[in-house]
């Protein structure tokens, strides 16, 4: 649902009636994106276009969006902003016929895998790059390449993230395979663009392994 508001300096879209200082805490903001300039019809910092132009950097369903003007003195403008929309500003709705130039970032409060009491996370491993046929962060290969720092053979959970952003693997929107006792793999040929992202992985192992 879109929310029409009048902005002065900065915006955070939470709900139709929420103010910025009443928004939920965010544990992971994306970088700011500025894909458009307020020429022609206006400035359109839309979520769907930000996702298309920045693959793997925005989660599937952001909880909040925070948009700010790039430069210029404070001014009031009529804009449309929502976490599932982004921001749109139409020049013809403004008193002077011109929108400001905006940038937006998104809040992705990920629910990362947990490692229960009696277990602990290993460090992150990133043994492969998607330059051959894909990215293969498998348990067997990691243990082969780290004989003096082997991972347990029976992990109960894995945590896989996009190396470039640190976000959960699911944000990349790629076809992947992940199983705690096997690890993670991504095959280039199975992706729409023919190329996997680069991933890193850690394992949840018993404390005494």
Overview of this protein structure:
- With 209 residues, this protein is mainly beta.
- It is 7% helix and 33% strand.
- It has two helices and 13 strands, in the order E-E-E-H-E-E-E-E-E-E-H-E-E-E-E.
- The longest helix is centred in the first third of the chain and has 7 residues, at 47-53.
- The model is unreliable at 1-10 and 13-23 (pLDDT under 50).
Please state the CA-atom Rg, rounded to the nearest Å. 21 Å
The SSE order reads EEEHEEEEEEHEEEE
Structural class: mainly beta
Oligomer: single chain
Shape verdict? elongated
Report the major sheet: 4 strands, antiparallel
For the largest sheet, list the strands in their spatial order.
Answer: 1-5-6-3
Number of helices: 2
Number of separate strands: 13
Query: In percent terms, what proportion of residues is strand?
Result: 25-35%
Percent range of helical residues:
under 10%
How much is the average pLDDT? 83
Low-confidence stretches: 1-10, 13-23
For the record, give the distance between the C-alpha atoms at the N and C termini, rounded to a whole number: 50 Å
Short descriptors:
209 residues; mainly beta; 4-stranded antiparallel β-sheet; 3-stranded antiparallel β-sheet; 2 helices; 13 strands; 7% helix; elongated; glycoprotein; secreted; signal
């Amino acid at each position: 649902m879109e929310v029409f508001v009048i902005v002065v300096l900065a915006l955070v879209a939470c709900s139709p009636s929420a103010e910025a200082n009443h928004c939920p805490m965010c544990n992971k903001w994306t970088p700011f994106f500025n894909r458009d300039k307020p020429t022609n019809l206006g400035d359109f910092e839309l979520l769907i276009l930000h996702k298309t132009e920045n693959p793997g950097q925005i989660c599937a369903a952001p909880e909040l969006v925070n948009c700010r003007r790039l430069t210029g003195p404070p001014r009031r403008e009529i804009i449309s902003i929502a976490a599932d929309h982004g921001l749109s500003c139409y020049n013809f709705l403004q008193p002077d016929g011109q929108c400001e130039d905006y940038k937006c970032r998104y809040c992705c409060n990920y629910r990362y895998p947990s490692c229960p009491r009696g277990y602990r996370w290993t460090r992150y491993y990133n043994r492969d790059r998607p330059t051959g046929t894909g990215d293969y962060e498998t348990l067997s290969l990691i243990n082969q390449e780290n004989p003096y720092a082997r991972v347990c053979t029976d992990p109960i959970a894995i945590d896989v993230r996009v190396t470039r952003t640190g976000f959960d693997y699911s944000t990349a929107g790629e076809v992947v395979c992940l199983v705690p006792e096997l690890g993670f793999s991504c095959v280039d040929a199975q992706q729409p663009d023919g190329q996997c992202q680069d991933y890193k992985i850690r394992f949840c192992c018993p404390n005494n392994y």
